[in-house]
Amino acid sequence: MAASCEKLDQLVKDYLLFRGFTSTLKALDQELKTDKDKGLRVDRMMEQIWSLLAVYDLQGLRDYWRYLNQRLFARLEQQRYAPSIRKLESSLLKLYIVNAHQCGRQDKVLSFFEQMGPELQTNTDFKDWFAFPFVAAPADNPMFSLYFNKQWQDTLQLSLHNFLSVVLQAMHILF
């Protein structure tokens, strides 16, 4: 599907160039640079998510996840995919906290709980996480140590990549 989008983009560009619509072509190029769908390419979507995590952009991460939810995930069979979507979102939020803590950004950890606290209070996955900012060494605490493990982080990245691949493949079938 990603290859189809790229080919279609190129056809539109060729048409605009052929017709002499250079300002429209420039506008299209600019729009493609900020394309949230990332050309429906999983690797670009993953880059977007990981770059938001790297710069501690919680609002950007939430907005992008919400966008994916509305644009892609909402079209899926909810009974089948909803638990995976919730688990991946929860894991990304936990990774955000761990990443901020590992990089010494306690301000981002505290800000996370200030922003997300009301929303996560009812989420059983986060029940224990409200203690995170008050634990002296979370990486050594059995409740959180798993999330500091590189293997867990790599597994999350691979799981998200595979999930997005499956979603895009299912989208291709739906269209």
Automatic annotation (TrEMBL):
Subcellular location: Early endosome; Late endosome
Keyword Kinase: no
Predominant place of localization: other
Stretches assigned to the ARMC9 CTLH-like domain: 50-169
Swiss-Prot/TrEMBL keywords: Endosome
Gene Ontology MF term list: phosphatidylinositol 3-kinase inhibitor activity
A Gene Ontology BP annotation from the UniProt entry: negative regulation of phosphatidylinositol 3-kinase/protein kinase B signal transduction
Any one of the GO CC terms: early endosome membrane
Positions of transmembrane segments: none
Family: Belongs to the WD repeat WDR91 family.
Annotated protein name in UniProt: WD repeat-containing protein 91
